[in-house]
Amino acid sequence: MRLQEYQAKTLLRNSGIPVPVSMLANNVVQVKRVASEIGYPVVLKAQAMEPGRGKSGGVRLVQSQQDLENISTEMFGLVFDKYPVQSILVEKAFTFSKEYYLGIRTDFDLGCPVLRISEAGGATCLETESFMNAPLFEQTIDINRGLKTFEIRNLLAQIDIDSSLWKQFISISLKLYNLYCLKDASLIELNSLVVTHQQQLFALDAKITIDNKSIYRQDQFVNAFDPSFLSDVERQAMKYDVNYMRFPGELGCIVNGIGLAYLTIDQLIRMQNVPAAVIDIHGAATISSIAFSMETLFRDERVHTIMVNIFGGMTDCEMVADGIISSIKFNNQNKPVFIRLKGTNHQIAIDRLSMHENIRFFDTTESLTQAALDSLKESLA
Amino acid sequence: MSILLDPSSRIMVQGITGRQGRFHSKRMLENGTQIVGGTSPGQGGDWCFDGSLPIFDTVRDCIDATNADTSVLFVPPHSAADAIMEAIDCGIKTIISITGSIPLHDMMQVKAALKKSNSLLIGPNSPGVLVPEIGIAGVFPDEIATKGNVAVISRSGTLIYEVLDTLKITNIGVSTAVGIGDDPISGIDFRTCLELFESDPHTEKIVMIGGPGGVSELNAASYIMEHVTKPVIAYLVGENLSTSILRPLFSQNGALVLDSAGAKTGSLVDAGVLLANTIEEIPTLLNR
Fold this sequence. Notes:
The complex is a heterodimer.
Chain A: H1 5-14, E1 22-25, H2 28-38, E2 42-46, E3 59-62, H3 65-76, E4 79-80, E5 83-84, E6 88-92, E7 96-107, E8 112-118, E9 136-140, H4 149-156, H5 166-182, E10 185-196, E11 201-203, E12 206-210, H6 219-224, H7 232-240, E13 243-246, E14 251-255, H8 258-270, E15 275-280, H9 287-299, E16 305-312, H10 317-327, E17 337-343, H11 346-353, E18 359-361, H12 365-380
Parallel strand pairs in A: 14-15, 14-16, 16-17, 17-18
Antiparallel strand pairs in A: 1-6, 2-3, 2-6, 4-5, 7-8, 7-10, 8-9, 10-11, 10-12, 13-15
Chain B: E1 11-14, H1 19-30, E2 35-39, E3 47-48, E4 53-56, H2 59-66, E5 70-73, H3 77-89, E6 94-97, H4 104-115, E7 120-122, E8 128-131, E9 135-138, E10 147-154, H5 157-169, E11 174-179, H6 190-198, E12 205-210, H7 216-227, E13 232-236, H8 246-253, H9 262-270, E14 274-276, H10 281-287
Parallel strand pairs in B: 1-2, 1-5, 2-4, 5-6, 6-7, 10-11, 10-12, 12-13, 13-14
Antiparallel strand pairs in B: 3-4, 8-9, 8-11
Helix pairs in contact in B: 3-4, 6-7, 7-9
């Protein structure tokens, strides 16, 4: 789960990492009030996950109150990735002499945290860029020992930084690592960490991603999480622990396992088609998560045909059948449902489902996909 | 004999009384797997499956009484890392975590513990290990493979079932099938499995099933180039993920998909691996 900038900055501030004075505003009136409280010049930052929001007008410097109304009204009118801007972070603007990048990422292959430093921070624009031009220096961290001061020094010694800043840089790195561990983060990036003319380090922009699998023990994020960034369906899918992937087509697919999801997409594209949605119910699916997935496709107006492809190992086909049956009442448009059930308890499941209309059974992924696509072509013709 | 699971393997189940643990332990037993006991903290001293299997509070107690050397885990994700480390601590040789979605920071602790041990972790999010005529240590569907000399390694659970099913239909037998799981941080990778299968006298050919994300396939490619003499056939899904329509939608959803599996095929081909474009092509390549 990616935190919004204002959430990330609150975490940094509470950890003792210096960030500029800032406040969140939800409408133009609030922006005005907050800006005069903070004092001009201010930077307005649209709270959106979009990388490169600065280039699309999502980050603007405001010198005086005269410009504020127009600029903030414009910004509230912006739409990023289909979601309109709902809040703006109003931040004290200040000038700086140099920018750095400081981050902690999780190395999946080594299975450990990695501290990373570069002397090319956010570069010319105020907005974070995901690529950098200067070399990135990295240090793996022993999770049991924790981050050590000498490890940070090893990195600092490789970049162009005034040694008078080392103490601040080390202190910020240690606090950042502490935050990474405490909050179950998978990624923390300060881009950029700037040096002011008073030789003070400040985190100008911050990205924090919290490991989705740890949210259960990080309840402050469950409450802090702003679901307006997800569509209704995506939000509910999260609740039911299914993976909902939306595409621009007309065929709705339910599969168990991400591998089967990829296979399905590969096959459809090979057959010159694109799905409308692929829902991965995972191995640990329940009757209610399966029913939710079916209902979602029944309700989706773009979907003309539904195909269910389950190869049960961990997934019990009997449960899949019960989930489908409990959702059938929502199929008021009589969309055709094509099903392939194999593996654990598949015979019981097929017997139970064959009592229902509008369902056809297939033995292989290929025959299933072919039949679903044929039916789709017919309904679109 | 076979690798990871053989007739002398003594298997225990961690979390044997949970919904998944009970359901799949029963299936494993029905498939002839030698399960010697299980754990369920607080229920030690009880018996399950009509008094046929003893339940223990701790892995230590289970090993003392049964000499278990392999463990299959059905513990909920929130306590799975603890259960894995308990198994490591007690010297369990092969730990198979069916449980997936274990918190990232917990898995980093597990990785550190594994480094200092002789245990092998398969998973998390693994379907387990299957050796025809010996048994299933995991959740593979019943009767999905016959005995033979082709080894199968896969990240995806459902895809290994698909491939095994296709092999069975085309009368190709399997030595060992192992699902290494598809979670971001996991135990053994393709490389370790290839190493085991290269020295396994019952394996003549190896099928590996991969996908997008991570570098496990790339590491496998360089290992194959240097050390593997047996023919390797690879099937990779997700070839279309980088096309312009799909890529932005995938990343927006937050799925961990950034690169296309197609990018990995080059290095595998260079290593002499035969690539199957579809599952149906795998038997053809094996019979070549």
